[in-house]
Amino acid sequence: MEHFDLQKVLFSIFFVTLLTWCVNYLWWNRRSIICTWRIPGPPTFPIIGNSYKFFRRDVELFDILIEYFQYPGIGKFLFGNKLWCLIFEPRYIQKVLNSSITIDKPKDYDRVTELIGEGLLSSSYEISQPIRKAVAPMFSEKALMTYVPIFNQSSALFANILKQLAGQKSIHWETITAKYFVDTSCKTLLGFNVPINLNESNKYDLAYCIRRVIDLLTYRYVSIWLNVRFLWNLSKTKKEIDKCLEIFENHVQQILKKRIEKNGQDKFENDLFRYIDTNPGFSKAEVSDIDVIKPLLALSVEVSSITLCTVLITLALYPDIQQQVHQEVVDVVGQQQIKISDLPRLELTDRVIKETMRLFPPFTIYARETTAELHLDQYIIPADSTMVIFPELVHRNPKYWKDPLQFDPNRFLPEAVAQRNPYAYIPFSHGARNCLGWEHSLVNLKIVTATVIRDLKVFTDYKSIEEIKRNFKLILKLPEGCKLWFEIRK
Fold this sequence. Notes:
four-stranded mixed beta sheet; two-stranded antiparallel sheet; 51% helix; iron
């Protein structure tokens, strides 16, 4: 009897303690709870919130976004008691990307920085801003002019590789394109010629390691069990990512070593090391050269690679537009190398690339953390919430784009662009923390696309835009591959 009474007493104490904690939590967080409740969104469950929606294959995660089209430009998503606000109204996006309240990236980014360093991807604006200032000159118009001959040389080599592979379908084109962008990125961003064989099939080369690191980082994000440090340290995923990072860092270390051996006799005037070395606001005590290089090189390669793949797919899906691009290149450039003055005249080529990035934005997600309450019309976003922007939610939204799944380069004619909110198109983000290298990427893409289409016809087994599946990664992936093949033009 006494034992039974003791159990009752202990249970009563536990129950009262739990009830007191719940009441205190609800009372002290009542404003945040009420504000969160007023934000539209799908039904939530106690404790887990909406996290159950992530218990599916990553190829299906884009289906979650379709549900949010029914909401008025904003929708909530709860991971336990952590609020994520998905925003896809251009006015809201503009405010979030330009507000001092949302200048920092979420603490979740720390999972990235612990692996590839406190570089431009750092969650802290205080750390990333000096780096941006240090490397910004290398993306200036003057610097881009010096890169054009490099892009021409490498794109001609790339086109020759494609000619050797003409007619072959069973090729992993994402790897081939990644090797091209490793080549151009190392030459332009690092100021050093790293010899790369685009036809090489070594599994653990630099291109493979960069792509694999991005994939595994995403896998960790969406795998709840891998966010437990103990399980992460024991996982095969960590062992593989460590191996890829070691190879990645060894490549960068070799470049640094060779640069020192050159003893200042650099061939390139515009390179990342030079700008870091000469910028007084950059502290190497906080961030090393390698920590700056790794994310910059990884993003440059991955973003440009998937964009080129999707550009070639869309041109293959629309042979009439492909022929028009070919004719434009022949009329403007002929068989010569592309000059700086030719780039503005390749208008259709430019519009094709931009329309492709509307349908297939290379960055699948941008995120910001609120440091104070943020007001978006009648909605109040509590502090310490995560603001999430999925470009595809905006780019494929019929509210902002007529027939959004129709491929139409004329959407980017000057008169059409002038009538549209600029934040309805965000392939490289906007604001103080946008992608620094977007112009570098576009110029490179324009030159390589023009060079390839001038010399080759491109075909695909895909039948429509709707048929192309996308994987939910930090950078867009096509789970079924590019399904491309080429023919040499006569």
